[in-house]
Amino acid sequence: MGRTYKYGENHFRDYLMAGMQYGADISDVKNIGEVTTGFIYILEYLLPNKKDAVYLDFKITKKEKHYKVVALNFISALWLSGIFPENTDTVIRDNKFELENILYKYDKRSKKLKYKSINE
């Protein structure tokens, strides 16, 4: 999801930040259900096909005072980065997505979203 936070750039970050401001440990297993529900509400508002929300898969870890949100599949990685492709089936099948001269791919081993500039 990135390293810097600016309010209003990413709905998921805003949601998580609000929870942390109220003292919630977003990595606590007792709170994951609420986080997931919040994410699903966000997706239902933003996705062209509401049924695609089933692809949401992530985990949140905490080390000292630092949280890390890890997307466990390509679609979730895009969503958590604020990118919402219209055809999720194609993205999953091809393991690539192009937007504004940037090619995105998901490294399943490292669980990281990779991207590079495309020169046209």
Number of helices: 4
- Which regions have little confidence, pLDDT < 50, spanning 5+ residues? none
> DSSP strand (E) fraction?
15-25%
Instruction: Let me know the largest β-sheet.
Output: 3 strands, antiparallel
Radius of gyration: 15 Å
Number of domains: 1
Label the structural class: alpha+beta
Alpha carbon gap, first and last residue: 27 Å
Strand order of the biggest β-sheet: 3-4-5
Give the averaged pLDDT, no decimals: 91
Describe this structure in words.
The mean pLDDT is 91. This protein has helices at residues 11-21, 32-46, 74-80, 88-94, and strands at residues 58-63, 66-71, 97-99, 102-107, 112-117. The longest helix is centred in the first third of the chain and has 15 residues, at 32-46. The protein contains four helices and five strands. α1 (11-21) runs antiparallel to α2 (32-46). The strands form two sheets. The chain has a three-stranded antiparallel sheet. Helices cover 33% and strands 22% of the residues. The protein is α+β, with helices and mostly antiparallel strands. The protein has one domain.
